[in-house]
Amino acid sequence: MPCINHAETFYPVNTHMFEALCLPLPQSPEYARACEALGLKLRACKQESAGQLRLWWQVQSRKLGPFGRVDLVSRGPVAREPGDLADWLGRWQRWHDRRPLLLNADGMAGDDLRSAGFWPLMTPATLAIVSLTTQAEMRKALHQKWRNRLNKAESSGLKVTRHALTRAHWILHSELEQAQSKGYRPLPPAISAAYARANPGQAVVFEARFRGDIVGGLLVLRHGAMATWQMGHSTDEGRKLNAMNLLLWRAMCWLADEGHSCLDLGMINDQDARGMSHFKRGTGAQDHHLGGTWLHLGALAPIARHLPRRLVA
After folding, report:
1. Do 116 and 197 belong to one domain?
2. Other Cβ atoms closer than 10 A to 93
3. pLDDT tens readout for residues 121-167
4. Is the domain of 270 the same as that of 307?
5. CATH label of the domain that carries residue 101
């Protein structure tokens, strides 16, 4: 399994090699370019067979106190076929240098991770993923209340525009203020700004105006077959007019026309953000369950293999 250093050998990326893989944002070459623009190096690794890309994963490395360097694979590896993930679990140490590894797994069973010596740290998160198809199919998939709000927004006089993200765009500042007031930790706005610089045309803002005033906006990041809803903000007036329904709908339609197959709306949190979770599911999005966060540490691996199954379910 060769490991490739992005900074040395991997730009520009030949996107045709990823056509069989649907790469989430942290595993995309576009994300790696944004990180490199901020001085954060990612290592790209792949496994090929018979000229086909079978597995792909990007590794972030950071120093973490007494552990020294800790590697992180977020929402990876990404496999061409489910069986390729089992192959990765059986062979991953061929490329890894035995340093601690944090794995935010996607598509791997807890029993398999336990058998490979991984220790569970965090329970699995759930994402909302929208399939981008025809407008008729997507509109039919909308929940009734969501569709009703969209209908009202479409007849309210809202004007929606689309343009590339700029470094000083208001939505970046609004996201930071909103995160601080509501107590959540998003991907830093600096990453989005760097993403726009490193990937021209791939960070796209949709804005809603009412009588000339901005009442809402959302940012989507494009990466191969997928796209990610990165942030959104609405004023009080925008909420009254259901601006976010219209903005997200226009983004879904445009992304589908541009050839994207799915839109990642981010995490579902039914405990602390029930309203937002309900909004995301109202688009017809399907729940996508990740595999939790796991740690492989040499000293813990033998113990991890004997953990009770109830702790890794």
Report:
1. no
2. 13
3. 998 999 999 999 999 999 999 999 999 999 999 999 999 999 999 99
4. no
5. 3.40.630
